[in-house]
Amino acid sequence: MDSYDFNILRHLQNDGRMSNLELAEKIHLSPPQTLRRVRALEEAKVIRAYAAQVAPEAVGLGVMAYVNLSLDREQFRNVREVERKIMAFPDIIECHTISGDFDYLLKVVATDLKGLSQFLTDKLMQVPGVANLRSMVCMEEIKPVSGLPIPSSMGN
After folding, report:
1. Beta partners for 64?
2. Which of 33, 44, 46, 70 could form a disulfide with 29 if both were Cys (CB 3.0 to 4.6 A apart)?
3. pLDDT tens string 93-113
4. How many Å apart are CA 15 and CA 53, to the nearest integer?
5. Where is the HTH asnC-type domain (predicted)?
């Protein structure tokens, strides 16, 4: 990757709907060269996807929580099976393995606190292998999901 690729990534993170012509003008390359580079970044999975960032409350999801989850390794050893079950819940919008006292950090959305409680108790805690949960409810979103701080080039 070179400075053109990094520039493409910065611009597409800010506006994924930008036309190829607009992008080419911004990065000072011809449209065919720009399109070739974008397609190469997509094929290399540097660009994972294009998506709209939807305001959760606008679609009735008024509660967001971070949930620490630990596994019971004594009773359940198939970690990948637990992960498949976690990934199947649409309420979980992010999942990361973490170090420390817990095994996973989940970002969960729900309509309200009762809905969050029902999801945690009736669904997530029922997954075989889940031993413990600790949730933290978000009070206010200060900085929503944003793009990565893309450097000018790999040397920076």
Report:
1. 109
2. 33
3. 999 999 999 999 999 999 999
4. 11
5. 1-62
